[in-house]
Amino acid sequence: MKQETRDRILALGRKRDALVEELPRRPSGLAWCAENTAIADEVAQLIYADLLDGRDRVPGLALIATGGFGRNELCPRSDIDVTIVPEDESSAELDSIIRTLFQDLHWAYCTALRLDVGYAYRLISDAPGLDVKSRTGLMDMRLLAGSQDLFRSLEKALQSSFSAGEFILSKINERQEMYDRFNDTPLVIEPHLKEGAGGLRDFHCSNWIGEAIGERPARPTAAYDVVVYYRNLLHYVTKKTQDQLSRTRIAEIADLLGISANEVISQLAMAGSELHGYYLRSKEKLHEGRFELSAATLAVRGEVRVLPGSSVGEAAVGVAIATSLGLHISDLPMRADHDEGGPSAAFALSSGEKTLRNLDRCTLLSQLVPELTRCRTLVPGDSLHTYTVMEHTLRMVGLLDSLEQPGFLGELKSTVTDLTPLYLATLLHDVGKIEPDEDHSKLGASIAREVCGRWRLADSVTDTVAWLVEEHLSMARVIRIRDLMHPGTVEEFARIVGDAERLKLLTLLTWADVNAVSAGSWTAAQETFLRHLYETTLLHLQGQLPPAPDASLSRQRLLRQLRGQPEDEGKLHSFLDSLPAYYLASTTADVLRLHMELVDRAVKGEPTIEQFVRTDLGATEITICALDTPGLLSRLLGVLYAYDLSLIGIRACTTSTEPHVALDVFTVSFGGRPVPPATMSIVSRSLMDVLSDKASVEDVLRSKGKDPRRSQEFFTYTYIPGTPGILEIRAPRGRGMAFRFSRLFAAHGWNILAARVGQWAGNGAAAFYLTDAAGNPLSSDKIRRVLVEGPETVTLQTAGA
User: Fold this and answer.
1) Within the chain, which residues score under 70 in pLDDT?
2) What sections of 310-419 are H helices per DSSP?
3) Which of 129, 484, 489, 704 would suit a FRET pair with 329, their CA atoms being 20 to 30 Å apart?
4) Using omega within 30 degrees of 0 as the cis cutoff, is the peptide bond preceding 674 cis?
């Protein structure tokens, strides 16, 4: 840059400084901004002229002002946004010219004028691929210097590739985000002068929407000038880009002007109300005008029309955008000429429940996903479901739509990189039920691959969708019938999900699937277990989950926590040595101290029953401590069954030293809630009668109309060998299953270390964690012999021994 040019720019910097200093003496809105912008214009023109001077040949360039700079509305601390458009990117001289231009612009605006500057480098061929934010800045562009022809070419390229529907929807969503972040009404004491309701952006957005539907932009009004006026003063008093008008700044500006703070607030509220009204009216005009929603659809007076020669995917995009804009979707069938879905179909089908129902109304859904609409009247194979398969699916989508922060699931959803696979898997998760004799998860996964292939989706998306469909029942099964405190549970589940992103998607899908079954199908217990499983599995996948419990380490931890307590040290050591590792690892020092007292009483022949309400589970924990006797656990379960308590889980523990004491914790509910105090009192008396041999469990069962000798007539089972082994059982729904099987296990002297009981796929289900009487593993053959040839007469349907 020549020294003469540099000196002239420095002089312009001083001129701008003087203009800023004059602002309090002659406060102004748009007129002041125009003078300020003219200085910035002259700087750009000087730099461009200097760049041309002395060069034989300069490639065609256009230097363009965008955003507020393009609107001639530079406030004192507004950013300078400049776009450079070359004619021929392959020119040999272009690289050094652009580098020099950027350096000179940076020095001039950042050093001489002390403003922030933002650059963009655009080719004419870039226009079709520009995002909405980039297009928005260019909607207010004007030529600063350079080629007029290039400027016109860029205008034409932007117009020819403009998607009005997508642009309008993006602007409306952007406005709502800003309202949520700042102020959603202009009648506010501390407004955001740019982005809040009634701010400058309301007027800008009104013009942008108007241009998108073919209207000429409105000229700034007196109300607009008022807001710019106060924005100029706010920049002046803060000496930075500040658009949030606080009470402190209002007072400063009021003092500067010699008026009251209330007058400032009142003027802005009146002006902001007018600007906000422009924006609201621009949204209403969407129901009156004619504009393109997508490449295949038009909005005509608020209704959607499909253009001839359209694909079903693009038509669906138009319906999705129209739904979000609140336009009317007719019940009359729409018919696209081509059945190609493409990625556009995935976008439309991931747009939420309202879009899906509108696509269904106009028959486009049946063209896109006939696999789903074939399930419109399909009744699920179990009695739990309130809705047909298709209605259940659409309600799942609505539930996913509803998830917002704060809250565990809402925050989880916000961290998902791409929600498209989740929504597509939701649509397809139950389509395999169309063939009742097949595993609907596996068949559904195969159908999902066909559908994703038909839409030409990326392999990574296809794999994730198919995996979610195939595994959509896995997490629900684990949280309902597996012991989440057992380290093997998390390890097994982590192998299924593989990575953190799939874990997030499956967690959300599981929640929506169970919730959409029927009212009350999702319980507080399931919510707690779901979150626990998600968090522990995530830690495992990240390598942060502690190793499996070690008895010696757990004892040392508890000894440190209990040190200095009045308990006899030797007695404490002896008590800890008598307990299994899984108990020590999952018990706090306070609870252990209580349990130690309960065991002392039990040794003296005083059984104890303690109750604790678990509001997080919607359940009651019943801790029973008594001298262990053969079949004790089965008798206790019989009492719970007699009073129709729903068993959620069991943690059974027996001390290893003589006399053996049982310390069992039962988690139960009554009608999906904690057990009422009156009921709990009656149950406790019956439990105590059974523990003290005042009554037999058979007597208690008969008194409540239950058959104590009834056998489990139909069930299927799967056994996973180990120490302990895990026996999963499915049977017709009913509360007596845990009692009946525990009676069978007791007859063979087996130990139940833990159990989970619930419903699974329309049946009762349970998982028992078993060892033999000596704590050794049980073989698959022994399990099979007992279940098939045990002392009870049972009709078996065995699966997967």
Assistant:
1) 56-58, 92, 341, 545-573, 580-587, 589-590, 713, 733-734, 759-763, 789-801
2) 312-324, 342-349, 353-361, 364-368, 370-373, 389-402, 408-414
3) 129
4) no
Distance CA 175, CA 282 (A): 13
Exposure letters 467-482 (e unless 16+ CB within 10 A, then b): bbbbbbbbbbbbbbbb
Q: State pLDDT tens for residues 476-530.
A: 999 988 888 777 889 999 999 999 999 999 999 999 999 999 888 888 888 889 9
Backbone angles phi, psi at 59, to 5 degrees: -60, 150
CA atoms within 13 A on the CB side of 296: 26
Backbone angles phi, psi at 365, to 5 degrees: -65, -40
Distance CA 11, CA 5 (A): 10
Asked if residue 641 lies in contact with residue 736, where contact means CB atoms within 8 angstroms, the answer is yes
Angle made by CA atoms 658, 662, 667, in degrees to the nearest 5? 165
Half-sphere exposure of 774 (CA within 13 A, CB side): 3
Of 323, 460, 304, 431, the residue nearest 368 (C-alpha): 431
> In angstroms, rounded to a whole number, what is the distance separating the alpha carbons of residues 203 and 186?
13
Whether the CB-CB separation of 378 and 389 falls below 8 Å is answered with yes
Report how far residue 387's alpha carbon sits from residue 504's, in angstroms, rounded to the nearest whole number.
Answer: 26
Q: Would you state the structure tokens that stand for residue 306, as one six-digit string?
A: 């499909």
Helices (H) and strands (E) in the chain, counts: 34, 15
Query: What pLDDT shows up at residue 752?
Result: 84
Radius of gyration of the chain, Cα coordinates, nearest whole angstrom: 36
Nearest one of 709, 698, 727 to 794, comparing CA atoms: 709
Q: How far from 384 is each of 514, 519, 625, 713, 791, CA to CA, in Å?
A: 10, 10, 36, 21, 33
Whole-number pLDDT of residue 558: 45
Asked if residue 406 has a cis previous peptide bond (ω within 30° of 0), the answer is yes
Backbone angles phi, psi at 402, to 5 degrees: -75, -15
E strands of 41-180, at which residues? 61-65, 80-86, 117-121, 142-146
Q: Which of 676, 726, 667, 429 lies closest to 529, judged by CA?
A: 667
d(CA 621, CA 687): 14
- 750, two tokens: 């087996």
Q: Write down the pTM of the prediction.
A: 0.78
Strand order of the β-sheet with 725-731 is 608-614, 619-627, 661-669, 646-651, 751-760, 763-771, 725-731, 716-720
Determine the Cα–Cα distance for residues 518 and 391; give it in Å rounded to an integer. 11
Give the CB-side neighbour count of residue 785, counting CA atoms within 13 A: 6
Q: Which two tokens stand for residue 791?
A: 């002392």
